[in-house]
Write the structure tokens for this entry.
Amino acid sequence: MNRYLRHWAGLGLAVGVTAWSFGAIAADVPKSPEVAETGTLVIANTLDYAPFEYLDADGKQTGIIVELAGEVAKQVGAKLDIQRTPFPSMIPGLASGRFKIAWETFSANPDRLKQVDFVMFLKAGIAASTSPDKVASFTGDQPLCGKRVGVSAGTASDFLVDKLNEACKAAGLPAIDKSVFNASTDMVQAVLSDRIDARLDDATASSYFEVTSGGKLVVLPQLYDVAPLGLAVAKGDKGTQDMMVAALAAMFKDGTYQKVLDKYGMGKYAIQEPYLVDSMDKLRQE
């Protein structure tokens, strides 16, 4: 499952939306040839996955990626054009030259790296969340054994529970009682109504639900399958790669990056610096 763990449903057609424009060019951030020619920074994005990108109650584009992309546009003195694009179309779109940047939370793998390169800007894994009154019951090296655990159908969490269940059985511990859901919101409600003990999901999404639930959900400390995440650019597109690495590096240096992550409760998923991955041996473990 990839855009790290997402269960995809209801994605719209690709639609270009110019969100805003900026001045104040950053002298040390190079423009890609496309941005230099058009004055527009085009980003393919789904606009449907909070807290990274979504439409607020007024229909305004917002979220971590939207804010970071806005800062990149500011640094290169360009208009920001976020084109709403279904996730499965993104890597083919980059490979065919339809756009230069697909900014989502991609994990790198050998198949994807045959077609695109990545600029890493975040890390995440899989985490369990539960209600505050149940936190103390999750103990030991295998805290999910014997628990009722919800997952989204077909995601990495779904498969991870099966693997963890085998470990429970091998250790002579009670099995995990897995429940499969089609929507994360349904899974949250199942925890709150005590139909399941915990939900297992993308750690970044879990942290977001912890913040927005007002304390009704708590993320457990153990992370599974931790991996760096990145935005995708066309294979070998050095101009775009250099622009994005430099722009993100400036945000890391001046504190903008951490400030945006903290705003959405994602601060603990920061990496040390942005970097290019064009082969699997370039991935860093933090």
Observations:
- The chain has two domains: 15-124+227-282, 125-226.
- Residues 238-254 form the longest helix (17 residues).
